[in-house]
Amino acid sequence: MSEIKHTAPPLPTDIGGGPAPTTETTPTGVSARFQGNEGYATLVWRRFRRSVMGMIGLVLVVTLLVMAVFGDFFAPMDPKRTELPFAPPDVIAFEDPAGNFSLVPYVYPIGETGDFDPITFQPLTGAEKDNPTPVGLFIKGHNYRLLGLIPLDIHLFGSTDGRPIHLLGTDKFGRDILSRGIVGSQISLTIALVVVAITTVVGSLVGIASGYLGGQFDLWVQRFVEFVLAFPQLPLYLALTSLIPVTAPSNIFIAFVIGVMAVLGWAQLSREVRSKTLSLARIEYVRAAIAVGSSDMRIITRHILPNVLSHVIVAVTLAVPSVVLLESFLGFLGFAVKPPLISWGLMLQDTGTFSVIGSYPWILSPVIFVLITVFAFNALGDGLRDAIDPY
């Protein structure tokens, strides 16, 4: 029998007669297959960077968190130091007393000009140009402990001659509003972040377990969730927070407030996660994992939880503003934080009467911190939602 010889087919050629280009010669950027696959986090970040409002929210959120962690460093004044009650905000300007431009900013306190309003005959106030206060960076001031451990007396900015400056005015006890707002962010943001962390963990676990296991377990869990959601939250908040004695320690009071908010805040997220889990449990790869005998824990942690996590992240960023507003409202009513602690809601107690607001409108300055926080987290959440689910 003769031997059969197999010959390789000739290489394909292009029109010019040369060999056809292979996949290695594909131009850069034509296909992601030839340049390496992008991870999910990289794709989300690339889409998120295109959102202007999302990036603004991210910068503001990072700024707020840094301000809260190093609050005493950023506060120009001692938040407990008392000066003139209801002092108006000082004027800051980049000009010396002669009116010339200066690279060093000056603070001009507000005082009476000696003139009177021709209609009401009230004394007119204005910036006192005769006795300015120069402002500098990294100025020595009141003593504090950085992160509660390191004793320091350096502040980001302040008066170089040691005189008090009040860029947002003072409250009814003569305490600097700007410094109290910066330091108060520690309590307000801590309460918000801890409450959201607890509600996220509990709501996610309950929602995934209820949606995946189903049956009687899902039936009874959902009835309990509906029971929690049926409560009118505001009266319940007021009733529960009034149970703790006024003489209780501050940390116990804050822990109780956090517990009350967390107990009433996890149910809505669990319903959302349950609906996502019900749809994911019917996908082919989950059915395949069940068919090959994978344990429930492996299916939940490896297949369901990563797909639910994107929704949870967005829900977290949108839940923080709600808790900040709730804490501010309860603090305004006197049911959240007690003195000597400082929070934005507690600072708003001074705005309880129209006469105070009309005579001293700068007392509403703590609202600025609340508005910036709500805007920052909402903008960040909207940007993340569009980046995670662009369709």
Summarize the structure.
The chain is an alpha+beta fold and 391 residues long. It is built from 14 helices and 6 strands.
Folded structure, characterized:
- It is built from 14 helices and 6 strands.
- With 391 residues, the protein is of the alpha+beta class.
- It has 2 domains: 82 residues, no CATH class; 210 residues, MetI-like fold (Orthogonal Bundle), CATH 1.10.3720.10.
- A 4-stranded antiparallel beta sheet has the order 1-2-5-6.
- The longest helix has 38 residues.
- It is elongated and about 85 Å long.
Helical segment count: 14
**Can you tell me the residue ranges where pLDDT is under 50 for at least 5 consecutive residues?**
1-9, 11-35
CATH superfamily of the largest domain: MetI-like
CATH architecture title of the largest domain = Orthogonal Bundle
Oligomeric state of the chains present here? single chain
Widest β-sheet, arrangement of strands: 1-2-5-6
Order of helices and strands: HHHHEEEEEEHHHHHHHHHH
* DSSP strand count: 6
Provide the helix percentage: 40-55%
Q: Which range does the strand content fall in?
A: 5-15%
CATH fold category name of the largest domain: MetI-like fold
Structural class: alpha+beta
> How many distinct folded domains?
2
Rounded radius of gyration (Å): 30 Å
Largest sheet report: 4 strands, antiparallel
**Rough outline:** elongated
Give the C-level CATH assignment of the largest domain: Mainly Alpha
Determine the mean pLDDT: 80
Distance between the termini: 66 Å
